[in-house]
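Please review this one:
***
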Amino acid sequence: MLRRLEEKGFLERSLDSKDLRRFSFRLTEKGKSGLRQAEALMEKALRRRLARLQPEETTHLLELLGRLEEA
């Protein structure tokens, strides 16, 4: 998976200067742009699904999800 992202220009790989057995990865500008686009698509899909709920249900769901995030 990482190799494919690297081949497509989304990631850059470099050797760890302290341990040559390890690599580190960094998002390229193309990778950052792709991530922003994916996040926007996910948010849009979530908003469409939440629109099916009543406002009180949405509030309750977000409260429950917040509790899970804190755990």
